[in-house]
């Protein structure tokens, strides 16, 4: 699936991944290839994504994630270093 991670300041990541984990408002959840469409609020926590050529973790302060048509877009309030 294609993943984009954006903040108001810049694009953090764009590429293909096989799995992504998000800190949902009601608990952590994972998204994989061909996941059902969804929109979810995110709380502060860790976002983890993995693919054939990438594996990364980053901490966000909150945001929104949309999954539609094998494309996932994360709009993060802020990414904490």
What does this structure look like?
With 81 residues, the protein is mainly beta. Strands 2-1-9-8-5 form a five-stranded mixed β-sheet, with no helix packed on it. Strands 4-3-6-7-10 form a five-stranded antiparallel β-sheet, with no helix packed on it. A hairpin with a 2-residue loop joins strand 3 and strand 4.
| Alpha-beta classification | mainly beta
* Cross-sheet strand order for the largest sheet: 2-1-9-8-5
End-to-end separation in angstroms reads: 25 Å
Q: Judging from the principal axes of the Cα atoms, what is the shape?
A: globular
- The CATH architecture can be named as Sandwich
Global mean pLDDT: 96
Number of strands: 10
Detail the poorly predicted runs.
none
Number of helices: 0
CATH structural class: Mainly Beta
**What is the fourth-level CATH superfamily?**
F0F1 ATP synthase delta/epsilon subunit, N-terminal
Order of helices and strands: EEEEEEEEEE
Strand content: over 45%
Cα Rg: 11 Å
Helix content: under 10%
Indicate how many domains the architecture comprises. 1
What is the CATH T-level topology? ATP Synthase, domain 1
Q: How many strands, which pairing sense, and closed or not: the largest β-sheet?
A: 5 strands, mixed
Oligomer: single chain
């Amino acid at each position: 699936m294609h993943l984009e991670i954006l903040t108001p300041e810049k694009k953090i990541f764009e590429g293909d991944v096989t799995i992504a984990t998000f800190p949902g408002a009601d608990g952590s959840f994972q998204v994989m290839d061909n996941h059902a469409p969804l929109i979810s609020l995110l709380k502060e926590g860790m976002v983890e994504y993995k693919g054939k050529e990438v594996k990364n973790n980053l901490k966000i302060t909150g945001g929104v994630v949309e999954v539609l048509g094998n494309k996932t877009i994360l709009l993060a309030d802020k990414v904490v270093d």
